[in-house]
Amino acid sequence: MAYRTPEKSKRPYGWRARIGLIVPSPNTVAETEFWRMAPDGVTIHTTRMLLRTGDVKDPLLDMEQYLPRVLEELRGLEVDVVAYGCTASALKTPYQKTQSEISGHLGLPTVTTMGAVLDAFKALGVHRIAVGSPYTDATNAAESRFFESQGLTVTVDKGVQLFEAQQRGRHMNLVPQDAVEDLALSIDSPKAEAVFLSCSDMATLDSIETLEDKLGKPVISSAQATFWGALRAAGIDVKLEGCGRLLKEH
After folding, report:
1. What is the pLDDT of residues 64-114, one digit of tens each?
2. pLDDT digit string (tens) for 145-193?
3. Into how many domains does the chain fold?
4. Which residues lie closer than 8 Å to 108 by C-beta, 6 or more apart?
């Protein structure tokens, strides 16, 4: 007898959607914040690409060799949409190329962090952004150039460096909430229409609405925007409280 894939409505979990999340191996934040934002009936299924931060010259480019394996893992999970959760990788490989490779391989709706962030700016009508991150100065400069190439104005792009390992792309997930909020407040100015907290491995969810209340403008983060993009790509347009204006209004 031929096997038939059960209808989504028959699933005990994930009856609305199963989101397949791809992250670099050190990332512990995106999956955690996805689960916290997930409405009833949405489940998150994470797979990792090895990020060899101390062993290779360009860890983000090296990481891409593991993409075929993680795609096969997601195929076996029968997810409904794929989210590629890495911001800085788009500075190495165009996010459109990554998105096309994943969707072409799996035949599924696919979002990337950088693509979702740009879509979030459009949805919010934002053209001038203040950018805060846990990245090095060189990565921040590259990110600013990227955003400027997309027609955005970057009023400031500043990194918070608390741990030596951040120089090698690790321990972004250890940046505490007070440091995230201090960073956001320090980069804001009347010129910026929104604040963007870059890096899907920097915890931001508990800070977004607090900062929006203080600043009077949208605050977008990598994990939040990626989840928003994945949810909408899955055809789920429920508005969520506690995750910022992006998910509450769009």
Report:
1. 999 999 999 999 999 999 999 999 999 999 999 999 999 999 999 999 999
2. 999 999 999 999 999 999 998 988 889 999 999 999 999 999 999 999 9
3. 2
4. 20, 79, 80, 81, 82, 102
Alpha-carbon separation of residue 86 from 29, 134, 248 (angstroms): 11, 13, 23
pTM over 0.85: yes
Both 99 and 192 in one domain: the answer is: no
Tokens of 37: 């934002």
Cβ(225)–Cβ(199) below 8 Å: no
3-state secondary structure at position 193: coil
Residues 141 and 94 in one domain: no
Does the residue 164 lie in any domain? Answer: yes
Residue 201 sits at φ, ψ, to 5 deg, of -110, 15
Are residues 71 and 193 both part of a single domain?
A: no
Q: Are residues 135 and 188 in the same domain?
A: yes
d(CA 73, CA 231): 20
Contacts (Cβ under 8 Å, ≥6 apart) of 216: none
CATH code: domain of residue 90: 3.40.50.12500
Please give the Cα distance from 202 to 236 (Å, whole number). 25
Task: State the SS3 of 119-165.
Answer: HHHHHHCCCEEEEEECCCHHHHHHHHHHHHHCCCEEEEEEECCCCHH
Residue 45, amino acid: H
